[in-house]
Amino acid sequence: MKFIQADVLKQKPTDESKLGFGKIFTDYMFTMKYKVGQGWYDAQIEPHRPIAFDLATTVFHYAQGIFEGLKAFKNEKGEIRVFRPEENFKRMNRSAVRMCIPEIDEKLVLEGLFELLKIEKDWIPTSPGTALYIRPSIVATNVALGVHAGTEYLFFIILSPVGSYYAHGLAPTRLLVEDFYTRATVGGTGEAKCIANYAVSLRAGEEAAKKGFDQVLWLDANEKKYVEEVGSMNMFFVIDGEVITPMLTGSILPGITRKSCIELLKANGYKVSERKISIDEVIEAQAAGKLDEAFGTGTAAVISPVGMMEYKGRDYVVNNNEMGKITKWLYDTITGIQTGRLADTHNWVVKL
Ligand SMILES: *Cc1c(COP(=O)(O)O)cnc(C)c1O
């Protein structure tokens, strides 16, 4: 693979407790271009730097873009560990089909990622709770104002050493159950990891933040009745010993952390249901003292306990605003497998 050396390397962060999330980027990135009639070409590793685009570039106007998010870790032996990367590129191709973006060769981009990670190994933080966040993306780069699928694309992978996703770390989050705004509809793009889904979600997120909430809990678009997911996380509830997560209906993002949790819970004898769950069922369970735990799952925060939900002006506290047992077990198990502290019982980690 072609490698273009940077003239100067950046200063690496010295204090891993101050990384934040997605603010610092490494020296190099992987890129690859696409042209109709030619296919994907020019796969290479080059310095991460600003690149100029014409202001009539398709993605700026019509949001034809998709992305992924995954993490790499490094153990004491200096071994690089990547969590389920094949799953991310498989999902990226499903998102690509939905958004009329040409599919990528999953093997080729995995190789590109692994080579990039080997070059950037010294950027992988090792303190508890930190990781190297990996952001693959594809955007339409041809210059045209007509509303059509792009004819040229850029695939890129950029890397960012990160700490906790939330400034308050693993403290239970406060969710506002959103009963007006909609994130996604069945038949829309909810199950694709496309950039426009996030633009759509910002307004509700901002209003919730102003009222002191961490995230919005989305309900289904049609009836505003069934729980869908949280900002960038899938949602789980533990009710009366049953672990419940909303089934994938087409408007919910099929999270890889969600899938990993389901597999872990099932392998360890928990009763797990993927089904429709209404917000009324959650609230009734809380009133009856049967809502044992609630948590979100996603690559960035891994597992995020929910301590409180507000719905139609009323507050519902979950588990005394404390992290529940299953929530903690999942967090410890997944982060343990990721970092190598625990055995990789499901063969999820690619070691470099
Ligand atoms: C990425 C994402 C998730 C979590 O998916 P993971 O694969 O677990 O990181 C959940 N919801 C939305 C809307 C997302 O974009």
Characteristics:
2 domains, alpha+beta, D-amino Acid Aminotransferase, Chain A, domain 2, nine-stranded mixed β-sheet, D-amino Acid Aminotransferase, Chain A, domain 1, 352 residues, 18 strands
Structural overview:
The structure is a single chain. By secondary structure, the chain is of the alpha+beta class. It folds into two domains: 2-162, D-amino Acid Aminotransferase, Chain A, domain 1, CATH 3.30.470.10; 173-339, D-amino Acid Aminotransferase, subunit A, domain 2 (D-amino Acid Aminotransferase, Chain A, domain 2). The chain has helices at 58-62, 85-98, 106-119, 195-210, 256-267, 279-287, 325-339, and strands at residues 2-3, 28-35, 39-47, 65-67, 70-74, 80-83, 131-140, 152-162, 173-178, 215-219, 227-230, 233-239, 242-246, 271-275, 291-298, 302-311, 314-317, 349-351. The strands form two sheets. Strands 1, 2, 3, 4, 5, 6, 7, 8 and 18 form a nine-stranded mixed beta sheet that branches. Strands 9-10-11-12-15-16 form a six-stranded mixed beta barrel, surrounded by four helices. Helix 2 packs across helix 3 (106-119). The chain is globular, with a radius of gyration of 21 Å. The model has no long low-confidence stretch (mean pLDDT 96). The structure holds pyridoxal-5'-phosphate.
